[in-house]
Amino acid sequence: MKANAEKIEKNTVLLEIEIDAESFSQAVDKAFRRLVKKVNVPGFRKGKAPRQIFERMMGKGVIIEEAMESVVPDAYYKAVEDTGIEPIDQPKIDIVQAEEGQPVIFKATVQVKPEVTLGQYKGLEVSKHPVDVPEEEVDRSLERLQNRHAKLLTMEEGTVEKGDTAVIDFLGKVDGVPFKGGEGKEYSLEIGSGSFIPGFEDQLVGQKVGETRDIFVTFPENYQAEELAGKDATFTVTVNTIKRKETVALDDEFAKDVSEFDTLEELRADIANKLKENAESQAKYGLRQEIVNKVVDNAEVEIPDVMVENQLRDMMGNFERRLATQGMTLDSYLQFAKTTRADFEESMRPDAIWSAKSNLVMEAIAKQENIEPTAEEIDAEAAKIAQYLNQDLEQFKAAVESKGQIDYIKDQIVREKTLQFLVDNAVIIEGASGEPAWEVIESKEEFREPAGDTKEPAGDTNEPASE
């Protein structure tokens, strides 16, 4: 097989590929043997008809077409490998010659990764924020832990207070007429959570157990149920019971109950350490992000539309998978957010463009600096992933190699090494202390990864009284 690559315009390459006559004749023979087993030829058992008879009935072109469907893709991928081009889209194939006994000649026009013109990426000045964990943050974390382990007492009498969970029956009306979804029985509502429309929860404060009262509210103008948006409504609400948190004292007994520690002092020190570790992780993340932002801004590259669309498709897929972990579908999220799929994708397009450019720039730096993964690094990363997935290492490695996924592991290693290379070659300036960005989950649990700016829904609700 012969292949020649010619750049015909920006980011587009023309491959001229030739398959020798002997290889094509062998492919035609194989194609005939496959086809004759599928076709009933009168007078012959299936698969036993001579080729001349088969061709007379079906036409020689059917066999040629079958052979081409086999040899063209293989020859194209071999040509891509031999010429070293990096396609970013499916090729457009034009057959020049396809006759048995003659070489097959075809052309493949395909878009390839654009060239990157790197700007300054070494010696960049970046700020590193000092890690500072104030005592007040430790106090707040302990308080959250205390509230999380508070007992919930059911009160058969008393009045609703902020922070209580009121178990209520309600019936909503607009202009004296009940509306769909405006009725609930034994509904648990945390007062102060803001889960119902503005004004609803505040008016429950002071209501006694067993008391029924009317609550007057106005639906927001942008309410999801358009027929209720901006309308005045009256809810008749009965408080059945009240559930109130009772916190336990912050002492050594509390520490023993909620952690592996024997004293409150040890628990407090553990929380402080976790906060510091998370703050350090945030500082490292912020430092790297600042460097990448500058490196990407300094580089020049035109991103083809197909790369943006591919990146956008990947981002949408990741977003849908995250929604699924919360029990939501994309359609329900779009309804919740009052937007369409097209508008939502368009809002993500700037991020998709930046991500595509960032990936290209990081790849270009890795090539420029000859950054590659070692066999030891690949084995270590594979072992880490296998352990996380609770799989046997050798079986995991065999699986990823058979599926061609080893390149993904290599790419991850190269990106990490490239990031570290940029950090090692940056001029780091101690900056001012920034806002802390940590969250304690539980004393025994790990901290969550730094969250981005995208806000995702905590769930969906069909209650018209909820917001």
TrEMBL record:
Residues 163-245 form the PPIase FKBP-type domain. It holds the Pfam family FKBP_C. Keywords: Cell cycle, Cell division, Chaperone, Cytoplasm, Isomerase, Rotamase. InterPro entries: PPIase_dom_sf (IPR046357), PPIase_FKBP_dom (IPR001179), Trig_fac (IPR005215), Trigger_fac_C (IPR008880), Trigger_fac_C_sf (IPR037041), Trigger_fac_ribosome-bd_bac (IPR008881), Trigger_fac_ribosome-bd_sf (IPR036611), Trigger_fact/SurA_dom_sf (IPR027304). GO terms for cellular component: cytoplasm. Residues 442-458 have a biased composition (Basic and acidic residues). Involved in protein export. Acts as a chaperone by maintaining the newly synthesized protein in an open conformation. Functions as a peptidyl-prolyl cis-trans isomerase. Consists of 3 domains; the N-terminus binds the ribosome, the middle domain has PPIase activity, while the C-terminus has intrinsic chaperone activity on its own. This is Trigger factor. It comes from Pelotomaculum propionicicum.
